[in-house]
Amino acid sequence: MRWLRVVRTPLGLTATVLMAVVLVAAALGPVVWGTGADAVDTDRILAAPSGAHWAGTDSLGRDILLRVLVASRLSIVLALLATVLAVGAGLVLGALPFLLGRRSGRIVTAAVNIAVAFPGILLALFFAVVFGVGATGAVLAIGLAGAPSFARLTQTLVAEVAARDYVSAARTVGLGRGRILVRHVLPNVAEPLVVNATIGAGGALLSFAGLSFLGLGVQPPAYDWGRLLYDGIGTIYVNAAAALAPGAAVVLAGLAFNFFGESVAKGLGVTVDVGLRPVVRARVRTEGRPAEPDADVVLDVRDLEVTLAGPAGPIRPVRGISFQVRRGEAVGIVGESGSGKSMTALAVTRLIADHGQVDATRLTLLDQDLLAPDTAARRRTLGTRVAMVFQDPMTAFNPTRRIGAQLAEAATHHQKLSRREAMARAADRLDAVRIPDARTRVRQYPHEFSGGMRQRAMIGMGLMNTPALIVADEPTTALDVTVQRQVLELLATIRRSDRAALVLISHDVAVIGDVCDRVLVMYAGRIVEELPADAKPLHPYTRALMDAVPDMATDLDRPLATIPGRPVDPADVPPGCAYAERCPLADDHCRAEDPPLAADSPEHRVACWHAGEEPR
User: Fold this and answer.
1) What is the Cα–Cα distance from 192 to 531, expressed in whole angstroms?
2) pTM of the model
3) Per-residue pLDDT tens digits for 318-352
4) Which CATH number describes the domain made up of 71-268?
5) Res 562: pLDDT
6) With CB atoms 3.0 to 4.6 Å apart as the test, which of 197, 432, 452, 472 could cross-link to 483 if both were Cys?
7) Residue 67 has what DSSP assignment?
8) CB neighbour class for 498 (10 Å; exposed up to 12, middle 13-18, buried from 19)
9) Domain 325-352+382-399+445-606 has CATH 3.30.1330.40
10) Are 541 and 615 in contact (CB under 8 A)?
């Protein structure tokens, strides 16, 4: 149905018909008109257009129009070969930065940028001289000259897809870059590449005709449209049609490719075609208690700090936080947008290695050091013992692959199950997360699931192995309250039955309070309060978050409570307490010195100079 949209518009229908005519002429030209095109008639040398010869004859009396029709096959085949070479080389160059990583990939990106700066025709002429005259040299010249533009397009598309959640999930599973590229990235950039390749074929056709016209392309006795145009120019004052006929063929075929490509782009909604400063490692600041390792601890985080490269210098969205999560425990992380919640989750699951620097005094999962060099054992631990539930399951699943295949991938990679066994387990996991008719659902695509079912399927993906830690980043934000309750109850059931630790990230204090045993309140990249879910908050920011959530006792005649001002920009954190400018209790001491995260009780820590005080 999507392709029908291509021909429903006047431009699309015209382009499709014109494209069909060109391809039919290329396929049948030599077969139908080949004999007549090569027939020499010395009595009709350089004859003017007539009923017998619509475009006249050449210097040997051969029919020019028939030769134009016969030349269509060689012209289009050579142009398509050059396009395939350009797309292939561009695909390799565009994917190399993803395969090589940020540092080595920058060299490839710089080389592509330099090549794109040169006009394509100059590159084609340069390569034509290098490879020599003839059809083969021209194909190589035009193909390599077109590669930089496709490489730039591929780099852009790959970089966009590489930031999606399902690619991050594949990295967590432990898949290599090559496998991720082939399975998850390239299928999602194929459509715009095909569309741009169709348009690029028109440009390759014109370029090929130009090289043949200059004598660098097809050589006699073979001929294409460019060669016929070269021959016709010599007799243009005797018979103008000798030059106009091949010229018109080049223009019409070029328009057919370009219009068809643009029609496909519009019909499918495809668009036709800033470096960062290096990360500076900052010294980690110790924030809280140095708790000793415990056999019951699943996740141990001490002095975690994340540094990202920014246009004006390093940015620290997470500034030295410490916490532990034990077996069967649910820990909530709450705070406004930009407080560092999601960045903390990505750091502990090691999903930001290519985008920033993660430092910590200790960062362990089941007592395995996550800051140690990457090994197969660490990838297996992350792939089997951590389940990551992303905020938007529609972007967390690969839209080009069936749900069952995506769930089975982790089992086939880590548990070495056969495809049949992995698909059976995928159906079992979908059934475990209460998706009806699971054996049918495993064969469906993500868009065939509702929002709540996709979120449950995402949880089922995490349960393909035996996770000791479930990290749920805003898992209910896009769901209605009924489905939200179902997802939260499902997470609680899994936690109780498997004794899995749960880290639940949300901006909704009410959700955190209902599900979690302990709450971490983050602001400006720091934990400003850690408290039991049923404890009375002491930090003014925590109290403000709770007051901003209406309940049955809220006075409807009064305006809803809000937190004045805006959250702190991670790139510009002020000295002293980051919350001071919004806090009703702040004084000069607060603005000058940042309070430490101190223990108010064995289970309650707060970072505030006026903890527990009421506003005057």
Assistant:
1) 50
2) 0.63
3) 999 999 999 999 999 999 988 999 899 988 888 87
4) 1.10.3720.10
5) 82
6) 452
7) H
8) middle
9) no
10) no
